């Protein structure tokens, strides 16, 4: 049982880290788009 629980915690950690890094990348991309739009205007 303990092995299964630890496995799930590792999977959850990896998934959460991936989601956080993806969200950060999207935020950076959005801010870059906003800067480009501001410079265009």
Order of helices and strands: H
Characterize the largest beta sheet: strand count, sense, and whether it forms a barrel: none
What proportion strand? Answer: under 5%
Number of strands: 0
Q: What number of structural domains do the residues give?
A: 1
What helical percentage do the residues reach?
over 70%
Summed up:
The protein has 41 residues and is mainly α. Helix content is 95%, strand content 0%. The chain has 1 helix and no strands.
Write up this protein:
With 41 residues, the chain is an all-alpha fold. It has one domain. Helices cover 95% and strands 0% of the residues. The protein is built from one helix and no strands. The longest helix has 39 residues, at 2-40.
